[in-house]
Fold:
Amino acid sequence: MKKWSIILALTAILVLSGVLIAGAKEKITLNFIDWSYTREQWIRPVISKFEKAYPDIKINFKRLAFAACHDGLQTAFMAGKGIPEVVTQEISWFGRFFKGEERPFVDLTDLLAPYRPKLVEARLGPYTFFGRVWAIPNDVHPAALIYRRDFFSEAGLPSEPAEVEKLLANWEDFLEVGKKLTRPDRHAIFIPGADFGYLMMMVLQQGSWAFNEKGEVTLDNDINIRTLQFYVDMLNKYKIAAPSPAGAAFYSAIDEGKVAAAMGPDWHLGYIKKYTPKSAGKWGAIPLPVWPGYNVRTATWGGSAFAITKACKYPEAAWEFMKFAFLEKENGVIRWLAAYQLPPLKEIIESPGLRVPDPYFTNQTFGELMAKLALEVPVYYMSIYWPEAATYWAEAVGHAVAMKKTPEEALKEAAEKVRKIMK
Amino acid sequence: MGKKYWRRNLIYPYLFILPFIVFFMVFDIWPIFHSLSISFLDMIGLGKANFIGLGNYSRLFSDANFYQSLRNTVHYVIGTTLLQIPAALLLALVVNSMVLKLRSFFRTSAFLPVITSAPAVSIIFTTILDYRYGLFNMLLEKAGLSPVNWLQDMNLVMWSIILVGVWRFAGYNMIYFLAGLQGIPPELYEAAAIDGAKKWQLFRYITFPCLRPVLAFVFITHMIGALQVFEIPYLLTQGGPAGASTTINLYLYQNAFSFFRFGYGCSIAYLLFLIIFIISLGQMKFFGLFRREVA
Amino acid sequence: MADKSLRGNFSTNNLKILMPYIFALLLFPIALIFLIPFIWMVITAFKPEAEIFSRSFLPSQSTGENFQRLLEIIPFFRCYLNSIVVGVSQVSLGLLFSSLAGYAFAKYDFPLKSAIFIALMATMMIPFYVRLVPLFILMVWFGWVDHYAGLIVPGVVSVFGMFFMRQYIAGNVPLELLDSGRIDGCSEFGLYYRLVLPLIKPAIGAITIFLFMGSWNNFLWPLIIIKSETKFTLPLGLANLSTTYGLEYGPVMAGAFLAVVPVVTIFLIMQKQFVRGITLGALKG
Structure:
């Protein structure tokens, strides 16, 4: 039975040492959390530069899982412990923190004021609550359509971007061309079967979204219903689209030529580029087709921003870092080349450094296209109920695609659920 | 004599159960009651909370997503119970008749799925069940059949989750059944064989009754576990598509820790608790666990 | 005539000897069902990244890059250590408290004993998620969020463990033994320590595995409570090996493989105790 006392003692020691190690650190550092591997790539050199310029500030960058940066942050706020100083927040999840009476972040409106003319104003909308701006946007994320030049040629269609742009001027054209591109072993495009991301881009082009600028739910307005119907028809009626495979299979399928086109914001296209090496050099890029009555050739989806938490004991230091890393021009082009993320700084968007031929797109200057589109990105307004709305919107798409409900029923149901929560 | 009696019957027993009871009160009893009181509040995060009486419950009654998660969970519980427990029992019966070394091999291989970490399990099954590249569909195609959308078809996804659950825990329960079988005195079988009993009679009149306590244990722990299924839906399908694989626990987590609706989350939990409590009491009576023990 | 019957006996005997092996052969596919995913996991752990999602079963070359990446992204061995610390703590404390309490319920008579016991039993059926939110709030109040204490302490009490101990002790520790111990001047606690504990080793084996499994696999609670990488338990650490499009297959497999080996070893060692524990405990129950 001595075994027991030994085991107990060991346990106590292990536990105690764990506790002690955990509590030991006490430095003047700014903890900066993020989840994005690609962001880590460009931010680490920037942090080194910053630390050289400001030797008394240390930035402790940690890449955590997405949930840890978001749900975990809320837990930290509630516990009052372990709150990082600088955080990256995804556009959809930022609003949650404004549900209560407290504002856990530092109000950046005045600090940003001198920089505002340099920024793409449309990108501040999603991070504006109660008339104040709470985060520096990381990106613009303009959306474009990319297509396989070889598949277009095979189908007897033009393949140069300038011509394809005219060919696919609007979504009706896309439908017609899509029919020519579709074969038994290939579709025109993948679109998510149970998520709203692509649908969101399509309705943003028409000035609609889940909420309007007054914060009212617009999930079930006419534009949304009509567009969802078109979306469902692409999949089920005309069969020019197939439901996107999940996870890694999405990229494998694209690499194997199962679709002739893809659409999405720069980050999405960046991932496609990264994970489809076999098809490199075969793609071209054009703006999105437009909708009848609207002239908007691009949209946006996703995004993140950087904020300073109220728990930060050195907000001035944090702001110095934020300015250096996110508002200075010199790091901008690197961000584009590293991660296909266009910062919301006009001087970068207009910089010639982006006009680099991209071999993946058969030496088209992809960056130039993106820069053009970045200035046309439509604005939209976040709501603190967006996470719930997002869940219900995704479900509505799923039900509509699976033909369990009509688009109108599905969207009305989703809208009602959100309205109920907002009461 | 008197003093010893008091010490024995009053101080020491209470002393012995004290650590257990203290922890139990703090971490089991208090939360159960606190949960009830929170369910009457409109509590978002740890900020201000207003008393809204049965407000959460009335919202719950008209919440289609709640019913969906309830359906999914019941589906999972029934599916895994009907598939897994008989399978585990069958396996145990067969493995029991094997040579000792082989038994150990089977027992260890059955144990592997249980100790494989949930993220690994979800990846393993992603690659098995993927529509285009998964093992199952590859085999189906070779057999000339059309591929099945295991994970993205709303009607099928819960079955896929059940499949993973059965794979993961059938072996674990087999081990318990095996142990139970090994505890049955062989004399019983010999005596019955002499009396000319057939195989199925042996099972029905000796094996099954002797296994009853183990069966009760396996059944109850399985049910408790199945009602709380969380990891695989969370990791494999994220409750999708369109909530088709969202279970109660996942729905609760979403409401409480993604949306921070603590009040609503507690009401979900509490409603279920009431339902399960009533059913469990019935179960325990059925397995006769309230029978008094003679020490 | 005699020849024929001899030969008949010979073949039946042969058959009897071979039966278990024939069974094994037939059942091998079933063991494979358990093993194949595991084998696949091991193979993938050594596959280079590009090949993981391809259709080839075996890698063209085995590589340690997944293990490297595993260690780069998360402090894997720290996660391992954390899981072990948490597991050992919960098991040892859990065993201590439940065996003490189980012993008291089994071998003592005291006022309110039945009432308390039935109350405890009744709570066994309550799913954990009923307590989830209030437990979390409790952790915030105690300051135990993102802390080992918050990870370990709430999981220490296992009503089932206590129940099992009680059943086992009731059936396997004779009252006479305890009485004679008392006559010999043994203290009450000494009875527990010196007489009861040695007798309940199989139950300890069984409950150890039961509690350890619960602790090792626990995902939801650490997910909610722990935010720092250095305190991640194994499931949490592996779940954090994600890129934007999902978990990184290679490193997760590498990590899971590393995680499984010692646990299986422990299982192999404790198997015998475990089996005896279930047998003697459950059957007497």
The first helix of chain A runs from residue 2 to 24. Chain A is about 45% helix and 15% strand. The longest strand of chain A covers residues 259-265. Chain A has a mean pLDDT of 87.
